[in-house]
Amino acid sequence: MSESGYLIVYNGFSLGIASMLFTTIFLLSARERVLPRYRMAVLVSATVTGIAAYHYFRMFDSFNEVFGPEAVEGAVYNVGYRYVDWFLTVPLLLVETIAVLALAKSAQTALLVRLVPAAALMIALGYPGDAQLDLGGVSAPIWGLLSTIPFLYILYILFVELGKSLTKQSKQVQRRIKELRLLLLATWGVYPIAFIANMNAVGFDEQGFVLRETGYTIADILAKCLFGLMIFSIARMKSAEDDKAFATAEFKGK
Prior knowledge:
Elements: H1 3-30, H2 36-67, H3 80-99, H4 105-130, H5 140-164, H6 171-188, H7 190-197, H8 206-242, H9 244-251
């Protein structure tokens, strides 16, 4: 790998580790700044970035074993670390989105029993294509297409079904939830682009590898760290709406 390509990916992983780690610390430290009913959403957000921080350390080590100054002969970069991370964190991203709204238990359950399995299926179907595994002769484009089906279903639930549950929320919260959905759409849209960039590579394609890893990292930071901070802001909004004493204590003079 060229020096420039190495440094781009290396610095991207460093940024990812710092972003995930310190977002986790902030969310854990700030969880008391919302009412108890919304703390679960904040804790799930911290769990997401904590899991991601761990896997970014693993990806960083794997990358250096293959491309670093002291590379290990025969070592192979393990893209599976990303997919294990996503398999855990993508469903949790959806859980925190539903949890912060504090919907009735039946409404939460109805949404989550559809969203969580769809998210897990989306990641499971994407991995063989991205890792270029030979499973029954199915090509990478087919795996990518199969992964897109649950992705579209998730978007339908978030933009149509969840929309029906927002009517009882304040205008401010409704606006922030709409921003959350758009953030997910924009960041998740990066993944198939990066996937396609490396989909038909034969052997090692440096340009495709750098584009894929950089794209994934930027999208991860936005979809996990920024998303988690937005969840925290919604929890703060709803806490202030629910409890005037809390609003006075937390926002007086602002």
